[in-house]
Sequence to fold (935 residues):
Amino acid sequence: MSPRTEGFQLRVNGRSHQDEPRAGQCLRTYLRERGWFGVKKGCDAGDCGACTVHVDGEPVHSCLYPAVRAEGRTVTTVEGLAAPGGELHPVQQRFLDAQGYQCGMCTAGFLMTTAALEAERGTPDDDGKLDDLPRAFKGNICRCTGYRAIEDAVRGVRHVERPCAGEAVGRNVGAPAGPQVVTGTARYTFDVEVPGLLHMKLLRSPHPHARILAIDTAAALRVPGVHAVLTHEDAPATLYSSARHEHPTEDPDDTRVLDDVVRYVGQRVAAVVADSEQAAEEGCRRIEVTYGELPYVTDPEEAMRPGAPVIHAGKGPEARIARVEDNVAGEVHGEIGSVEEGFAEADVVYEETFRTQRVQHASLETHGCVAYFEPKDGEGEGTGERLTVRSSTQTPFLTRRALCALYGLAEDEVRVVAGRVGGGFGGKQEMLTEDIVTLAALKLRRPVKLEYTRAEQFYGATTRHPFTIGVKAGARADGTLTAVQMRVVSNTGAYGNHGPAVMFHSVGESFAVYRAPHKKVDAYSVYTNVVPAGAFRGYGLGQVTFAVESVMDELARRLGMDPLVFRERNVIGPGEGMHSPIGEEEDLYIASYGLDQCLSVVRNAIAGDRSAEEAPEGWLVGQGTGMAMIATGPPGGHYADARVSLLEDGTYDIAVGTAEFGNGTTTVHQQITAGALHTTEDRLTVRQSDTDVVRHDTGAFGSAGTVVAGKAVLLAAGSLAERLRTLAARHSGVARHLCTLGAESVDCAGRTVTLKELYEAAHALGAAEELAADGHWGGSPRSVAFNAQWFRIAVDPDSGEIRILRSVHAADAGKVMNPMQCRGQVEGGVAQALGATLFENVRIGERGEVTTAAFRRYRLPQYADVPRTEVHFTETSDSIGPLGAKSMSESPFNPVAPAFANALRDATGIRFTELPVTRDRVWLALDRQRRGVGR
Fold:
C-alpha cells in the first residue's frame, strides 16, 4: 500500500473537513464534534438506527462506521437532505405533513433510511424494501410512536392542518418544532458547543453490597488530561432522593451523591473528569478500590424476612424509611368492610398470584447533562457567575430546587434548562446525573459533561418496578362482586426513589374502579440489592391492572358470564364515589364519564369482527379485553405557572415551564392560546423548560402537561385577551364590548387597530404591564380518565408464536385537543405496553447484576412487531380539565397486558400469570397442557 501523500479529507453536506479522526473513532462522534448534531446517539451498537447517514449515497449506521473509512467520500446527514435554497427534501416534507415523529430522536434515522431507499427506486439496486416496511426498517427503532405515523409519512398521508384564527383547538395542528426535527436542527441536550468542556466518566461498583474501605486515585490522576477524581470524601454527606416530586417528603432520603457503601452492581463509586471521554475512561480503569463485601439479597420476600441483610442499616427516622431493619421502604394497609364476610357471601372465589418484570424506559436520548458557568443577570459591577445545568430532564424546576438544597446555593445562583428531550416515559423524573456533574463543576469551575452510554441506562439509571400481586376476589352467581383482596410486593431495588409513591398509586384507581362492599390491601415497597426502580409510564397501575383485570376475566368465565357484562355490572358509574382501602382522595372526582362508551367500542368491535378468518389453519384463536381508570394528575398538588405576552411585532410569546419530550404539550399550549386570543399558531412562540422563563413548574410527569400546565396557559391567555380588549377600547375610544380580537388586529366597531399599534399605544399610555398576563394552576381538583383495550390473537400450538389479528383501543380523553397527537400517544402507549407484555425484560443475574445491558439483548418492539391499533375517542367533556380535556399520556399503557393475557386465555385455556408472555413460555405451557402436567 503506497503512503498517503495528502491529508485526510471528506465532504459533509458539501463542506470539506480535513481534521484527521482519532484512532478508532467512529463516524458518528466525528460528525457531531464538527457540529453536525442531527446525527443522534441512541445505542452506539448499530441497534437503533438513530445515527444513520449516507456515505456516497449508501445508508450506514455511523456509530459502527470507522471515521477513517470516510476519507475521500461524500457524507450526507439529515441537515444536508434539503435543497441548497432550503426547500425540504420530499421525505422531510412528508414526515412533517404526517407528523411522523414524537420526541424526534429517531427521526433522522428514519428519514435517511427512507430517502436512500427512495433514491434506489427504479434502479438495479431496488429490491422492493419500500413496499415491505418491516424489512426496510429492521435497523431502525422508535420508542414513541408505535410506527403508524412513520408508515403514514412514508406513504405520503397528510394529517397536519392549518386551521383558521381561533379554531386551533380540536384540530390536527402540527408540532411547532416540526421543521427543526425533520431538518436535524432541533437542539437536544448535547446539541450545543461549550468552550473548554470537560468530560466525566463514572467508576461503578462490581459488587451488590460492599463497604468502600479505601480508594487510591493517584494512578488515575497521573493519566494525561485528567483534572479530578471525585470520591465519597469529596461529596456532601447530605441524604436525598433522586426522585423528583413537588413534595420531597413523598420519597425516602436514602441516597448520597457518592457513598462509602454500595448497594447494587453498577452504583457509582467515583467520578473522573478529564479533557476527553477517553482520558476519563482510562482514569476510571486506574482507580484502585478496596471493598469489604457485605451480605446481599435480591428477592423482596427474602429481604423482609428476619435475618436478611439490612440494606440501609443505620439510617434514622429523618430518612423516612418505613422499617429500616425489615428493608421496607414504604407500606400501606387498609380494609373496607370485612373481606372475610365478603368471601363467605360469594358463590365463586378465585385466587391467584401475578408477577410483572423490570422494564427499561429505553428513551433514545440517554440520561445526561452539561453544567457550565455564565454571568449572572443584574445591574452594576460584581454580579458574579451562576451555574447553568442543561439536562435531559422532565423536571427542571424541581432539579434546581434539589441542587440548591444539596450544595447550599440560592436559587438565583442556579439555572436548569432542558432542550428538546429525546423521550422520557417517567425515567427522567429523576436526578441521576445533575448532582454529580454539579459537584465537579463547582469544584473545578469549568464546564463538565456526563452522558450515559446505553449500557449505563440499563444498570445505572432506573427501571419499572417489578411487582408480585396476590389477588383474591369473590362474586355472587349473578356476577356481583362481594370482595376483593390484594397483597402487593414491589421491588424498589437498592434505593427508594418513587418506591412508596408507586406502591401507593398502584392500589388506588385499580381498586376504586370496581364496586365491592369489602376490600382489603396490604402493600409493601421493598429494598433489594439490585438496580433501583423508578417512575415509569402508568406509575404502578399497569402492574396491578394486569392482575386485577385478569382476575375479573377469570371470575366471569367461572360464572359463565360475558366478561364485558361482568365488568359493566361492577364498575363505578357517573357521580359515584371512588372507594379504595387506602383511603379516599378528597380532590378526585368523576368530572366526566366515558367508561361506558369505551366498553361499547369493544362490544361493537367484537360484534363486527372477522379477523379470525385471517388466522392460519390449526392456530388457536381468542379475544380479550382489559380496562383501566387513572387520575388526571398526581395527588398533593402539581403546580404550573404560565405567562402570555404581546410582543412588539404583534405576535405572542408563551412562557411555560413544562418540558417537551414528544408528549405534544407544546402544541396543545399553542392551540389553547390561539383559541383564547383568536389567532393562528404561526403567530405564537413558546419558551419552555427553563427555570428563567416562569416562576415555577412542577414538571412534565403524571400526565400533567395538558391538564395542569395547559390550564395555567388557558388562564394566562384568557386574562391577556381581556386586557388587550380593554387596552384597545381605551386607545380607540370605543366601548370594550365592541372590541373583537383577531389574528393580527383588534376590530373596534369597524376601526382596525393592529396589534403592533396596540403595543405602541400601551407604552404611550404607560400601560405596558397590560401587555402580559400570568396564569397559575395548582393541579387540584382532579378528574379521572378511562381506557379499554381489545385484542383478537392467534396462537400456533406447535411453536408458541402469537399473531395479533386485530387491536382496538378506546380512550376517554375528554375534549381531544389535537386528535392526531392524542392518537399518537395512544398508539405509542399500546406499542410500549406490548413490548412489556411480549418480550421486554431487564434480566438480573445471581448477584443482582443486569445481564441485558444492550438493545440487542433487550428486545424492543420494532416495526414488524407492532400492529396498527384502531383508536376510538369517546364523546365526553370534562368539567375540570382545560376546555374539557383530560390527560392521555400514561393511561393507554395500562389495559394492554391484561387484554392480551385474557385473549391468550381465551385462545389456549391457560391463564398466564407472569409477564412477559414470551413465545417459549407459551409453548411450554401448551406442551404441559398437552401432556396433562400441572395447570
